[in-house]
């Protein structure tokens, strides 16, 4: 059993990503937002970087349901050599995006920015010209 406060976040993330790539099960001791501590056996499927933390998307064998966990909530973990047995449900909230506009460059620029929620409000401070050689690498 690995206790996460005795090692770096990188080591914890590396061990869990190794379990994900080998499709091995992990048993975790987890503290949720309410402060409740539970022991769960999970099958990792995805890892996403969030602001200041990582989000783990896994199937929980206790509930037989998909769970969204944070890396900072994991108090200890053990990786096993057991294989995955649960089938992950297909996402049902997918909405097909609107087709990209082809008539106006500014509209296409705004469309592409809105597709990425992190950069949706980004606007350059200075208009960049292709002939400006100061920015050349």
Number of helices: 2
Would you tell me the overall average pLDDT?
Answer: 82
Secondary structural class:
alpha+beta
Q: Give helix and strand order, one letter per element, not per position.
A: EHEEEEEH
Spans with pLDDT under 50 lasting ≥5 residues?
none
Main beta sheet: strand number and arrangement?
Answer: 6 strands, antiparallel
Query: What's the β-strand tally?
Result: 6
Question: Mind explaining what this structure looks like?
Answer:
The chain has 137 residues and is an alpha+beta fold. It has a domain at 2-83: SH3 type barrels (Roll). Helices cover 18% and strands 35% of the residues. It has helices spanning 9-21, 105-115; strands at residues 2-3, 24-31, 37-50, 53-60, 65-70, 74-83. The protein has a 6-stranded antiparallel β-sheet, covered by helices on one side. β4 and β5 (65-70) form a beta hairpin. It is elongated and about 60 Å long. The N and C termini lie far apart (48 Å). The relative contact order is 0.15. The model has no long low-confidence stretch (mean pLDDT 82).
Structure at a glance:
The chain has 137 residues and is α+β, with helices and mostly antiparallel strands. The chain has two helices and six strands; from the N terminus they run βαβββββα.
Strands, helices and their partners?
Layout: E1 2-3, H1 9-21, E2 24-31, E3 37-50, E4 53-60, E5 65-70, E6 74-83, H2 105-115
Antiparallel strand pairs: 1-6, 2-3, 2-6, 3-4, 4-5
List the keywords:
6-stranded antiparallel sheet, 137 residues, alpha+beta, SH3 type barrels
């Amino acid at each position: 059993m690995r206790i996460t406060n005795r090692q770096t976040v990188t080591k914890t993330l590396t061990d869990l990503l190794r379990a994900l790539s080998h499709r091995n099960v992990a048993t975790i001791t987890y503290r949720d937002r309410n402060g409740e501590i539970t022991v769960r056996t999970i099958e990792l499927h995805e890892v996403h970087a969030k602001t200041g933390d990582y989000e783990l998307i896994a199937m929980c064998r206790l509930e037989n349901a998909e769970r969204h966990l944070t890396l900072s909530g994991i108090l200890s973990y053990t990786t096993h050599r057991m294989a995955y047995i649960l089938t992950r449900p297909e996402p049902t909230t997918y909405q097909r995006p609107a087709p990209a506009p082809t008539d106006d460059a500014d509209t296409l620029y705004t469309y592409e920015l809105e597709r990425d929620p992190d950069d949706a409000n980004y606007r350059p401070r200075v208009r960049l010209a292709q002939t400006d050689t100061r920015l050349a690498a």
